[in-house]
């Protein structure tokens, strides 16, 4: 079983190595989230887990933003695009895949299939296990347009605990490649159980630090940013960013149950013989509306049954357990049917 990673430092280091800092600048938020975690443990013996985005970090593995609370339901603010998106408008849903204008390197395709040991629950969660990376990807595949081909599955889950008696909050991260016929794009999902309950209005990071365009886009680094208060009390953040040839999009949902689900995509990926991620296609195959639909998928609870975890082992293969510091046993695997073809 995993040792508690209270500050998320191991996870942060692993994601920084993988993504090489592309996408939103999350360093300050990650550091702030780690400080918040230590402060909360002193005051309430709770731990704050943080943030991943399209590209980044894991101490708080979040993308930096939070929906500013507004009176009434369905309040929305948005900063629009100044030019047409390389693929489509961020919220469009039925745009043909672009025809590549140049050759791109092929993403690294790992074939190993490693065991992802489920993390058993305790206390009120006895009999259940933490949402596994495989199960999160299974829900994600079902929520995305079925015409795309998926591959390159990896991920893991962790329990963020204040002490041995704490049942913990689930932090699950996973990624895969999604190809609409014009080339693969990296797609990531992160589930942060109970994140909203660990945020305080009078300290930082708070909800505005994580979900409000007026805060996270203060410097205008995002090409598009929209935040919305949903009728059920949840908060939705949609962002798009371009940096040179790199394009990233993200939908981040702070649900009414105070769990945050983030689904992001970028046109960069790991490539053989390169220390840094490389641009592997033009544009992106998924719109913000499609990412939002995936983030709002009902198949992403914090805790699941062992049977649900087992079912995902048969459908999401080959899968690499990328828990920092773990070298898991490998099993033979054949490409999964359905979503991979």
Describe the overall structure.
Residues 308-324 have a biased composition (Basic and acidic residues). The chain has 341 residues and is an alpha+beta fold. Helix content is 20%, strand content 26%. The chain has 7 helices and 17 strands. The protein has helices at residues 9-19, 27-44, 133-143, 207-211, 213-216, 288-295, 306-315; strands spanning 50-52, 60-62, 76-79, 113-114, 129-130, 149-160, 169-179, 184-192, 224-229, 235-243, 246-254, 260-266, 268-269, 278-279, 303-304, 319-321, 330-331. The strands form 5 sheets. Strands 3-9-10-11-12-8-7-6-16 form a 9-stranded mixed sheet, covered by helices on one side. A hairpin with a 2-residue loop joins strand 10 and strand 11. The radius of gyration is 19 Å and the shape is globular.
Q: Which consecutive residue ranges, at least 5 long each, have pLDDT under 50?
A: 11-74, 82-89, 330-341
Amount of helix: 10-25%
Q: How would you sum up the major sheet?
A: 9 strands, mixed
- State mean pLDDT (0 to 100 scale): 76
Strand order of the largest sheet: 3-9-10-11-12-8-7-6-16
Q: Quote the distance from N terminus to C terminus.
A: 34 Å
SSE topology:
Layout: H1 9-19, H2 27-44, E1 50-52, E2 60-62, E3 76-79, E4 113-114, E5 129-130, H3 133-143, E6 149-160, E7 169-179, E8 184-192, H4 207-211, H5 213-216, E9 224-229, E10 235-243, E11 246-254, E12 260-266, E13 268-269, E14 278-279, H6 288-295, E15 303-304, H7 306-315, E16 319-321, E17 330-331
Parallel strand pairs: 1-2, 6-16
Antiparallel strand pairs: 3-9, 4-17, 5-15, 6-7, 7-8, 8-12, 9-10, 10-11, 11-12, 13-14
Helix pairs in contact: 3-6, 3-7
